[in-house]
Amino acid sequence: MIMDHVDLKEAITKGETSLGIEFGSTRIKAVLIDRRFETIASGSFEWENLLRDGSWTYNQEDIITGLQTAYREMKQEVERNYGVTLRTVGSIGFSGMMHGYLAFDSTGDLLVPFRTWRNATTGAAARELTDLFQFNIPERWSIAHLYQAILNEEEHVPRIDFVTTLAGYIHWLLTGNKVIGIGDASGIFPIDESTHNYHPTMIKQFDALIAAKGYPWKLEELLPEVYLSGEQAGELTAAGAAILDPAGNLQCGIPLCPPEGDAGTGMVATNSVRKRTGNISVGTSIFAMIVLERELSSVYPEIDMVTTPDGSPVGMVHANNCSSDLNAWIGLFREFSEAMGFHVDSGKLFSVLLNKSLEADPDGGGLLSYGYLSGENITGIDKGRPLFVRSPESSFNLANFMRTHLFTAFGALKLGMDILTENEQVTIDSILAHGGLFKTPVVGQRALAAALNVPISVMSTAGEGGAWGMALLASYMTNKDQGESLEDFLEHKVFKDAEGQEIAPDAADVQGFQAFIKRYQAGLAIEQAAVDHLLETGRD
């Protein structure tokens, strides 16, 4: 039952709400939900990662500005629609891009600029730790960044007091608690499934590995404490309330759930925390999360072993690049239309161009592109060189051009997913997809179904994304029944009446994608040549 305006106003006033704020790769979004899990109000802040001194980062100032802007816009929407000044919230949760490296000294100062998941500069560390642990350590993981800094003998390492993720940093800033949700923690350091904590043997192995360095810390002293979904992980302090709401209206004392990674909120937002389910999050990067029934038989550098927010093992296939290059091309078409004197609505521009791909040849007409704005771990390319290639015999038209850029957005993901389904015989009952690409109906879904040869569902909530998923985790903390699991809470309360659209793979599309992916794999040498020979002054 949908709450009416009067009920919503009362719920807001009483704090019968939950707030999720997610720091995504291109947008910081705040979503306030009611006790029916419907969105009451939202706000956002657009931002971009920056390549500085060879490292992908975000300005620390933008982190705070974005947090405050997203909250302020959400608060203003509440005031406009309900005539209420937001003073309290039932529960709050923060999420952010997983992995990366935020290292602080004992005074709370950031020692080096935030190193994001997008950096492909930790290859040596990742390989050495994978060999030591016999557990895949991806280049994006926080421990790989830390160990690479040690290998590089960076001067800040002896002064480290705390290492965390972006979500963990925001939570610490607003509560004073150095904690992390288990899903986000699983992108910092390997998790022991039996204890729901960092793997103790591997912790000892790491400390032994660096013992000769004589650092004044042990690894476990640097890492945030691990929490499970449903547990309270702190309260909003007076200082934290002043940061979040500089206007001074927000009260302190609001409970906060464990901060989580965007992978975990994606699983929650798509009701994909049960075994044999999966979800795919599409944005600047793309990742698939498949909840596993059993451990994998081998260590694969293409597969991250992480967890759901309640600690179940997950096989994660993460590709660094997805929609950025597609968005850039659509931006070029926008420039052209404006140069011709036509102003085109963004939604219509995306819709027209993406739908054009449905008229294309099944394989994209022999065209080839790589949307590599950064290095791509799955294909072994260590730097970004967006590339479009065709032969004289290719069928070069707009429909094939758009299909090729859609297909390549899923190319690296496909190669990783094949390891799970073909090498490990992992059974997947359902995959739900979410992200801005799916705001245009059918097109992205159909291309993804062709890539993976699996039915793809998109829920009506797909556009809400990770901030909504984080709000659900905050709501779960305060509104769950005694002993109620996260998967039951989602299935029986949040998604019991959810509507969705499933698209099965089209045989011609599947065959076309198979032809495309062969071309994609064969052309990787071209992409590597671009990395080797196309140099950019000040960036390489």
From TrEMBL:
Keywords: Kinase, Transferase. The keyword Zinc does not apply. Its EC number is 2.7.1.17. Residues 19-242 form the Carbohydrate kinase FGGY N-terminal domain. InterPro entries: ATPase_NBD, FGGY_C, FGGY_Carb_Kinase, FGGY_N. One of its GO terms (molecular function) is D-xylulokinase activity. Residues 279-477 form the Carbohydrate kinase FGGY C-terminal domain. Belongs to the FGGY kinase family. This is Xylulose kinase. It comes from Paenibacillus plantiphilus.
